[in-house]
Amino acid sequence: MFEYGRRDNDLFHVANILVKGGMPENEIRQVLERLIISWGENPDKRWIEAKVESALKRADRREINFADEVRDFVVTSNGLFLTSDVINDFK
To answer: What separation, in Å, do the N-terminal and C-terminal C-alpha atoms of the chain show?
Structure first.
């Protein structure tokens, strides 16, 4: 990881994982900044911000898609079902 030619993708991957884990945005920025410093480079605030924003947008899209899928499940189901039925259906 973090070799020339893949640092952009790797930096996004780290940001994405941290967003999924629920880390606050300011802490994600700090982690990315420290990673860039560890490479011997000066951190570019715009680059960091782009990776964080991209990861946040991906998380938002995922939540919307999941909500749509659950809504479809409920609308197309007959009779009673449990929350566990929904969870098992989406595994």
So the answer is: 29
The three-state secondary structure class of 80 is coil
User: pLDDT digit of tens for each residue in the chain (91 aa)?
Assistant: 777 888 888 999 999 999 988 999 999 999 999 999 999 999 999 999 999 999 999 887 776 667 777 777 777 777 788 878 777 776 6
pTM: predicted TM-score of the whole model, two decimal places: 0.65
Q: Are 12 and 47 in contact (CB under 8 A)?
A: no
How far is Cα 46 from Cα 24, in angstroms, rounded to an integer?
A: 18
Decide: helix, strand or coil at residue 39: coil
